[in-house]
Write a structure and sequence with these properties.
Blueprint: E1 7-13, E2 23-28, H1 37-48, E3 57-60, E4 63-66, E5 76-77, E6 85-90, E7 101-108, E8 134-139, E9 141-142, E10 153-157, E11 162-165, E12 184-187, E13 211-215, H2 219-226, E14 242-246, E15 250-253, E16 257-262, E17 270-276, E18 279-284, H3 291-296, E19 302-307, H4 323-333, E20 338-344, H5 351-361, E21 368-370, E22 376-378
Parallel strand pairs: 9-20, 11-12, 12-13, 13-14, 18-19, 19-20, 20-21
Antiparallel strand pairs: 1-2, 1-7, 3-4, 5-6, 6-7, 8-10, 8-22, 10-11, 15-16, 16-17, 17-18
């Protein structure tokens, strides 16, 4: 039970007149510490909502707390302490499968409520988890870690498996999201170090049903050399079973359906298309624009691509995608949603530069998601 000082956040559909409103309550317990309540509110909003692209603002007396998204969004309205405050902005994560314009209503109410215990610290009341998969972006940088995030890794949580794409340093955070009871499948796109550097953290895990690593032909030999003494604990000495399975280009059942095709990159690189739990998820990084990326993304529920370059930039000698390239692939593939990750660390030096991509291209691609470390979406 929460003590006095519980916070109730409501997310409501702010679509135009005639639209049916969609509402979900977020309940969070806040203990009545001696520091001002507005500081507690701000800390939780920063931790939970900023990473999901939800814009917020809290007005208390003559002071205003706001997210750093505020400078990049539309109008706001707010009242003094004791009254609700609304802030309009675009939310990356859909509520009940809808991604329109939302507003965040913040209330501070004095009563005791039961707080659901969840890993993320918040709970969308009445939102069914049945038939959905969670996709968490553990690392969203390309090349090296910066204050914007870790190198690339994506977690897919299906009913029977925990599935990982790539093993950049972000993979070390996977144990914050998984129970370690399900079988874990790791798909490696290629062997540039920003996609495999996190393999040295595997020794911290206790995967009760083991790990299977999938990669292109030649993966076994490369892993035997890289995940080995004197660099790190060898795969054979990890505290759980590890198998390495090499995949040729084409379709495989392992037992869920996987299609892998080569992409355009200086090093041999695979893109993957998974069909599992009635959903299709495609992962294409690193690559330039190519037909295989379109083929893998055909009618996919979620297309995850890289965004190594800024708008208008090109790198023909070392192919990567800019936002326009990624959107073109999604459009040609008729993908339902597009998520950008693997932002070049030397190019996108702040999260504000990533947000600028979303602001500019969201009208052109309404389902666009600009990923940041820790973002979780449902598919």
């Amino acid at each position: 039970m929460a003590t006095t000082g519980s916070l109730v956040l409501k997310i409501e559909n702010a679509a135009g007149s005639g639209a049916v409103p969609v509402r979900a309550e977020v309940l969070m317990g806040i203990r009545a510490y001696r520091r001002p309540a507005r500081r507690i509110i701000a800390a939780i909003l920063e931790r939970v909502f900023n990473r999901q692209g939800i814009f917020w603002s809290v007005h208390s007396g003559n002071r205003t707390l706001q997210s750093d998204f505020l400078d990049h969004c539309g109008s706001q309205e707010g009242n003094t302490a004791g009254q609700s405050c609304k802030y309009y902005g675009t939310e990356q994560v859909s509520v009940h499968g809808i991604t329109p314009l939302y507003y965040l209503t913040i209330e501070h109410r004095q009563e005791r409520v039961k707080i659901p215990r969840t890993r993320t610290g918040f709970f969308l009341k009445g939102e069914s988890q049945h038939g959905t998969m969670q996709v968490t972006f553990l690392g969203t940088n390309g090349w090296f870690d910066t204050t914007t995030g870790n190198t690339v890794s994506v977690l897919i949580q299906s009913e029977e498996y925990d599935i990982l794409f790539d093993a950049g340093n972000g993979i070390a955070k996977a144990d914050q999201f998984i129970s370690q009871k399900k079988p874990v499948c790791l798909f490696l796109s290629h062997f540039h170090i920003d996609h495999i550097a996190g393999l040295h953290t595997l020794c911290k895990f206790r995967l009760k049903s083991g790990l299977t690593i999938y990669g292109q032909p030649g993966s076994s030999g490369l892993l035997d050399r890289f995940v080995a003494e004197p660099f790190t604990v060898p795969l054979k000495d990890l505290p759980f079973s590890v198998k390495v399975q090499e995949l040729s280009a084409g379709e495989h059942n392992i037992p869920f359906k996987v299609i892998c095709l080569p992409l355009v990159h200086p090093a041999p690189c695979f893109g993957y298309r998974l069909e599992i739990d009635g959903k299709v998820i495609t992962y294409c990084t690193d690559t330039g624009i190519c037909d295989n990326a379109v083929t893998l993304g055909q009618d996919t529920d979620l297309l995850i691509t890289e965004c190594g370059l800024k708008s208008g930039d090109e790198s023909p000698g070392w192919p990567h995608l800019n936002p326009e390239n990624a959107i073109e692939i999604a459009r040609r593939a008729k993908a339902k949603r597009l998520a950008l990750t693997h932002f070049g660390a030397e190019v996108y030096k702040s999260l504000g530069e990533r947000r600028a991509v979303q602001e500019r291209f969201l009208p052109e691609c309404p389902t666009l998601i600009v990923a940041t470390d820790g973002l979780t979406i449902e598919v």
